């Protein structure tokens, strides 16, 4: 009974932990998505969790000047509208002092000084009346509180994709990420098979070197690699700051982990299959292509997720090997530039952020069924 109770508690503990992880991951993502679809004025005054409710905001306007007055029934009247044409705001209260923007309800007639009255309606129309002629070049300043219904729009995405240059950066990121994910997998798969099933001098040393490279800090090797690449490129007449350079850089940084992960999985494949294939006369290349690769698809997909996410979200390597020109910026670089120049435009930032994460989400959910199987691959004891 004690064992049963402990097992029940463990299951509930796992369920609660998974639920917490789901909430922590989903809520911010949902907030970014909702904010990216909201009107920019509503984002500025209320949080994304209020997106389905009517929001309130304060504003100010000014009545027309004295030259717009007309005489009606012995009083001088100025009429007009405080709101711009096409606005969805509904005025709920108004006032003539900034300290009391809600002193009077919309639609009521407010008594001001010397018999002057002011009436502001819900649609923003107003009537400013006085027993004597108005004077001065400027009208009365009016403060108001207005409510606006929930409004969702795709204008933010149109602005980001076509006006802010994100579209070009999106293409740049794809151009960097896809080859930088495929190339390490191709190289690491061959290397992992050789280190797992082929016997040759120095094999153990190579495995030790690969494991040692896992702990080399990325930042420490960036500049030496850049100098080496520029030197070799100058010798062969290849210009610096090209896609080839960043592909090679990401390949070099991703290979140690790729080889380690793939070797751990390939070494755990059944020895009987390999021996039977060799007895039937298959070469190492045929064994690799026809047996090892199909059986290793889960771990290949798992590494592809890791590599794709890392390269897609990378900023440092892209800035060093590709540059920061407008035609070279990757998506993370463009978003970083927006954070500096458009720090107050939350509708631009949230939309850019969601555009940045949508592709990794598609890749992850497309390959997630292989993710856990690939992560657990190294726990299988191999050669």
From TrEMBL:
InterPro entries: MetI-like (IPR000515), MetI-like_sf (IPR035906). The chain crosses the membrane at residues 12-34, 176-197, 204-226, 246-266, 287-310, 348-367. Pfam families: BPD_transp_1. This is Carbohydrate ABC transporter permease. Belongs to the binding-protein-dependent transport system permease family. Keywords: Cell membrane, Membrane, Transmembrane, Transmembrane helix, Transport. PROSITE patterns: ABC_TM1. It is found in: Cell membrane. Its main location: membrane. It is a multi-pass membrane protein. The lineage of its organism: Bacteria, Pseudomonadati, Pseudomonadota, Alphaproteobacteria, Hyphomicrobiales.
């Amino acid at each position: 009974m004690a064992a049963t109770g402990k097992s029940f508690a463990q299951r509930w503990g796992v369920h609660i932990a998974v639920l917490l992880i789901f909430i922590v991951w989903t809520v911010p993502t949902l907030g970014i998505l909702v904010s990216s679809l909201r009107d920019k004025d509503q984002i500025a005054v209320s949080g994304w969790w209020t997106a389905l409710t009517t929001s309130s905001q304060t504003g100010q306007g000014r009545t027309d000047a004295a030259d717009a007055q007309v005489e009606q029934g012995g009083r001088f009247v100025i009429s007009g509208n405080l709101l711009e044409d096409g606005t969805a705001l509904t005025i709920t209260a108004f006032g003539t002092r900034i300290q009391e923007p809600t002193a009077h309800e919309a639609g009521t007639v407010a008594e001001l000084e010397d018999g002057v009255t002011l009436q502001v309606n819900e649609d923003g129309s107003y009537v400013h009346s006085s027993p004597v002629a108005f004077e001065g070049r400027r009208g009365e300043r009016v403060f108001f509180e207005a409510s606006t219904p929930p409004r969702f729009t795709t204008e933010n995405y149109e602005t980001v994709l076509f006006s802010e240059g994100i579209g070009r950066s999106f293409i740049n990121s794809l151009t960097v990420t896809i080859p930088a994910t495929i190339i390490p997998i191709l190289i690491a798969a061959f290397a992992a098979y050789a280190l797992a099933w082929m016997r040759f001098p120095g094999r153990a040393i190579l495995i030790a070197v690969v494991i040692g490279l896992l702990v080399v800090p990325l930042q420490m090797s960036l500049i030496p690699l850049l100098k080496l690449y520029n030197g070799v490129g100058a010798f062969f007449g290849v210009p610096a700051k090209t896609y080839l350079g960043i592909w090679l850089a990401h390949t070099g940084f991703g290979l140690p982990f790729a080889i380690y992960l793939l070797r751990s999985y390939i070494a755990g494949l059944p020895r009987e299959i390999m021996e039977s294939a060799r007895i039937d006369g298959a070469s190492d290349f045929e064994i690799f292509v026809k047996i090892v690769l199909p059986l290793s698809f889960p771990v290949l997909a798992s590494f592809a997720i890791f590599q794709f996410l890392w390269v897609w979200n990378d900023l440092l390597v892209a800035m060093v090997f590709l540059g920061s020109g407008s035609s070279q910026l990757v998506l993370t670089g463009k978003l970083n530039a927006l954070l500096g120049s458009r720090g107050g435009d939350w509708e631009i930032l949230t939309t850019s952020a969601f555009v940045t994460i949508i592709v990794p989400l598609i890749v992850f959910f497309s390959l997630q069924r292989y993710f856990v199987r690939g992560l657990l691959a190294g726990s299988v004891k191999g050669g």
